Amino acid sequence: MLSPTRLILISAVSLYIAVYADAQELLEIQDLDREVDLTSQLAKVTHSLTIKNVGKVQTQQYAVCFPADASAQLAFLEVVEGESDDAAPLPASPVILDTQPGNASCWGVHLSQALQPGATSELDVYAVFTKLQHAFPAHIQQAEPQRVLYQDSAYVLSPYSIATQTTKFKLPTRRLESWTKHAPSTHTGSLLKYGPYKQTPGFAATPLRLHYENNAPFAEVMKLEREIEVSHWGNVYVEERYELKHGGAKHQGVWSRLEYMQDPGRNGPASIRELVAHLPRSARWLYFKDDIGNVSTSAVRFGFDKVEALLHPRYPLFGGWKVQFTFGWSMPLRDFVARLSGSHMQLSLPLSSPLQGVIVDDLTVKVVLPEGASNIRPSTPFPMQTSGDGRKFSYLDTTGRPVLTLRKINLVPDHNKEFSVTYQMPLLAILWEPIYLTIAVMAAFGGVMAYVRCEFTISRDSKWLAEQAREKMVDLTSRLQALLAGRSAAIAILDDTDIASVDLARRTAEAALHESDAELKELQGEFTRLPGFKKGGEVASLLEAERALQGSALQLSHQRVSLLREGLSTMEISSRLERHEQGVAERQEDVAGQLEALTLIA
Amino acid sequence: MSKALGLQPLDSPIAEGWYPTLAVLLILAGLGSTASFFVYEVTTTKFSRNLRRELSLSIVASLFLGFGLLFLLLWTGVYV
């Protein structure tokens, strides 16, 4: 049984076949310039062509084909219509043409507008292939240059007939060991030119082999894991874990660092001496480490438009050698995260490795957003495998930070475009982190509060009991002191109150005294209940003296008021009340003395 | 990048230049209130201790210390 999706796929493919079968009859390539840039480890192929509709009906389809074995290594394909450089690339998807031979793989391109009969259009096809330049010999010694073999066809593989075509191969050096001639073909310096060839039919091919020197370092990242962690407190961390190897001709025999350093130009010309990383201008706090620790042999240059880091691994990489390291840095939040509206944020930054000239076999990008982020949507410049159900526990997390994982295989520098992730995050959610810290500190205080309430005495002996009684005594005495001070203050207010409101003030003071009487009585009771307390008499006499003091103080204030009402002068009042005042002062001294005596006992 | 697109960049709630100052001031205030908490704990007996006063002292101290520690972490480059 076929699943519905497979049925749809099959019908879509058969529809394509029908459409392209027509298109092949309709189109003709008038003029095609192919340029193959072999100066790095990549093969960058550019077709600049003019197509013409030679049929009777309009068409909107164009097919671009490459040899099947090369297609497996196709990393990047972009078809642009017209002459302008900033035109949007046209969508391309794999198709199977009915005329296509077994050694070809084709991609269908949907033109932006239908091509009328007789009309022409200009197209630019840009394709990047990895690992098409094979080391030959496959093993070299330290001082040998690296030579590679590249196989292609002198004719451009195309389903359409081509009126005129030329191909230029740009080689890294002028040292060309051998090449297949196919007249007219010329070799000048580091340039190989084939063509022009006239009137080649569809899918015409004539194989050619180029054998030349290519000392470009074949830096190949077998596995790259990038982790981008966003903190709304103002930072974006990027950490990259690399598994890198030299994918060129394998090193054989001994290796001598002395010779390597004495003659850097000729000794180990294809080795990887350093890796250059271009980071955004505001990158800071870079680090470069491996399993052993920090790798100190690196340099950083802070430029106007970028930060350039020169990373020297612990040893140079020869063919087949591998190295693992971690490279990381930080960037300010405001340069990479924008607020779209309310709680909607957008993170945008470059997708792939900042290392220059490397190919990445397997890229994983993990975007770690702050705890509480939701509604996470990535937007990538090309399709990527996406999963968004990861969690990461980092600083001060409870439920974990949401992790969005993006994955793609076979990347070249052209893939290093910007991608973005939109998400929703309440602005106040970042306050959870200080609240967690506060709760942790509070827990420590709670521990102290619990500890002081614990009793660790093993035996409750007489000494312990005496200590308890003393503590209780201290407590009671200080409470008594506070209570008595309050009572004195309540009375003292009367002296400063003016005549008009003095009656009300006195009533209030009396009520306060009356109220605290009960408390005093209760305190006295507690004193007498203290185990082994023998100073009950002292407490009673203190309270008695205090009560007498308050009584006479109240009376004094009463007399002063009535004398004032009689209209006597202040001088006269004070002379009349002098004895009474003295009496109050004596009582006050008496109370203070008794209280002090009691405190000393405690 | 976001600026080039005319979007409003997202800033930290408090300017990053303030982190060191805030860390020092808040931690000092936190240590001071921690000291007053411990002074209270050791100068009172289990009969005279007042839970409400203990709680208020410790909550003030932990708020100061909690936020102070946060800014200390941020100052040292640990962006939580």
TrEMBL record, chain A:
Coiled-coil intervals: 466-526
A Pfam family recorded for this sequence: Ribophorin_I
Presence of keyword Coiled coil: yes
UniProt xrefs under InterPro entries: Ribophorin_I
GO biological processes: protein N-linked glycosylation via asparagine
Keywords: Coiled coil, Endoplasmic reticulum, Membrane, Signal, Transmembrane, Transmembrane helix
GO cellular component labels: oligosaccharyltransferase complex
Subcellular location: Endoplasmic reticulum membrane
Segments traversing the membrane: 435-454
Bilayer topology: Single-pass type I membrane protein
Keyword Membrane (UniProt): yes
Signal peptide: 1-23
The protein's annotated pathway: Protein modification; protein glycosylation
Family affiliation: Belongs to the OST1 family.
Function comment: Subunit of the oligosaccharyl transferase (OST) complex that catalyzes the initial transfer of a defined glycan (Glc(3)Man(9)GlcNAc(2) in eukaryotes) from the lipid carrier dolichol-pyrophosphate to an asparagine residue within an Asn-X-Ser/Thr consensus motif in nascent polypeptide chains, the first step in protein N-glycosylation. N-glycosylation occurs cotranslationally and the complex associates with the Sec61 complex at the channel-forming translocon complex that mediates protein translocation across the endoplasmic reticulum (ER). All subunits are required for a maximal enzyme activity.
Subunit note: Component of the oligosaccharyltransferase (OST) complex.
Name of the featured protein: Dolichyl-diphosphooligosaccharide--protein glycosyltransferase subunit 1
TrEMBL record, chain B:
UniProt subcellular location: Membrane
GO biological process, one term: protein N-linked glycosylation
Family matches, as InterPro entries: TMEM258/Ost5
Transmembrane spans: 20-43, 55-78
Bilayer topology: Multi-pass membrane protein
Stored Pfam families: Ost5
Family membership noted in the UniProt record: Belongs to the OST5 family.
Assembly and interaction partners: Component of the oligosaccharyltransferase (OST) complex.
Protein name: Dolichyl-diphosphooligosaccharide-protein glycosyltransferase subunit OST5
